[in-house]
């Protein structure tokens, strides 16, 4: 019995569930605040992301005409569930992952992709033209960054000789930061995470000056809140994963906060620096530069490993 | 689904759309992401200002016309005042003309800086948007020290101006312009060197000189396509003969050139304002102006920030104008958007649209109610 309760607690309170959502809201606040300060704005108040989420959750959800209602309602839940589940397999707050099994790196990458897939399907499900265009762009973008992102995360895994996140994490703990020798892989991973979260400059799928809110144009109320929470959670999980692999591991909660927040500062600065890329430019950039860089990094890792070990 | 393939996919933009700050309706037919045709409808903010002037006396009409545009308000009232003064053969004193010209150029600075921000926003470059609007506050503050107002300064009266250029204004202009000049050099550097921004502006919305001539483009949009057309030079008004501006021309006619041309124009404006402030003629601010204007017609043209502004004023010898006809510059530039966006990516369309610095509400002359396709009724 106590075993079940323990699992339930792990899933709902820590490290999953509430903790992830709270961290997600905190990180959204920090990201927005940093962006605002970089852009010479005041930025949101501390509780703004929470207030947004509560307000949206309390509002009526309008199911528009021309959609398949079951998909319309369930896709946001699936998206958030995917992101939350992914959080159970990463060393959240510097503690060992809640669950760990061989090959869970692939599971996490799939679960993180589930959010994007849900957003794409949600857009394609509605009859709105902006949504359909946004969905097309979301899915197009998914195909461009997913492979390089996966390759970039594989490099540390190959070095550690295991595809189990916890094992990779243990192997890099206390060692020199992998981001230094494998800076290409680190770079591709960070940019890939920004692409995954559709942050500027990769925000063509939700470019407000062209297609309003992209795939989520028709969403209001609960659905929108769940999608946004899902994105926030994915931001935390992605940052944790990259920090655990490339920034010398997360030995304790303090290290977790420092490293992921440091990474968040970099991500926010990158968002403020660039103009939005057109979708063709995004795809071109990923396949011409991103994929090649990731492949080169993988090759270097494989060769070095063969030579040294 | 072979039938579906043939179907046209139309992306409607407007009348309510986040990309548009004013209502207008665009229909872009797209093939994937590529635009294959475009059309536009106006008339959502028709306010009946032209007709409204006929029920007002000359002075009241001027204040009404100032409200045609919220950005270039002073140029409207100045054009009308100049036209009426020409009809009455009572020119404003030189000092008043100089102050009008200073305000016109200040207005150009605030209009162009606003545009830099809007265009950057359309490109998803929020940082440049925020920075340029922050610095634009400088010129808004200068305008406020002049008249107490940031937008509709109502600085003109028929036969002169209300506000004098005192030491406080001179001081704020000199300090403000020094700061702005420095910032504009910075923006010039950004639009010429920021790689991610150049990818969105270089070669986008290209308009050759021949096309610009054919489509009747005016203002900075035309000048970026190497069409030397600037009413401040072609038919000088106010003190533009004593304090001339140089036409700024671009050669390529893409969006990047329009950025460069507009920012270059601001350097010209700053230079002219400085000269005017340093050598402002003395004398009165106003002359006595008649209530009734002699019968006659006049055409007055000035260079608004967006291009040539055209006023036709007809007087029947009474206290009210008989007819006032306004042709605002945006109207002549819209064709270049419709032609220019074909073949481009949908993502570039907001950029191309904002590239002409459009002002929708000043275009609206009538409302067309569309009852059924192909059958339109004017009301």
Please describe what this structure looks like.
- The complex is a heterodimer of chains A (309) and B (379).
- Chain A is an all-alpha fold and 309 residues long.
- Chain A has helices at residues 2-12, 17-38, 48-58, 69-87, 104-125, 129-160, 165-172, 183-196, 208-211, 221-246, 253-273, 279-308.
- Chain A is built from twelve helices and no strands.
- In chain B, β2 and β3 (34-41) form a beta hairpin.
- Chain B is globular.
- The relative contact order of chain B is 0.18.
- The A-B interface holds A 38-41, 129-130, 133, 200-201, 203-204, 207-212, 272-281 and B 9-12, 17-19, 33, 120-131, 134, 194, 196-197, 199-200, 345-350.
What is the element layout, followed by pairings?
The complex is a heterodimer of chains A (309) and B (379).
Chain A lengths: L1 H11 L4 H22 L9 H11 L10 H19 L16 H22 L3 H32 L4 H8 L10 H14 L11 H4 L9 H26 L6 H21 L5 H30 L1
Chain B lengths: L1 H5 L2 E5 L11 E7 L2 E8 L7 H5 L4 H8 L7 H16 L5 H29 L3 H22 L8 E2 L2 E2 L5 H27 L1 H7 L7 H7 L3 H5 L7 H4 L20 H24 L17 E9 L2 E9 L5 E7 L1 H13 L7 H7 L12 E5 L2 E4 L1
Antiparallel strand pairs in B: 1-2, 2-3, 4-5, 6-7, 7-8, 9-10
Task: Give a concise summary.
The complex is a heterodimer of chains A (309) and B (379). In chain A, 71% of the residues lie in helices and 0% in strands. Chain B is globular.
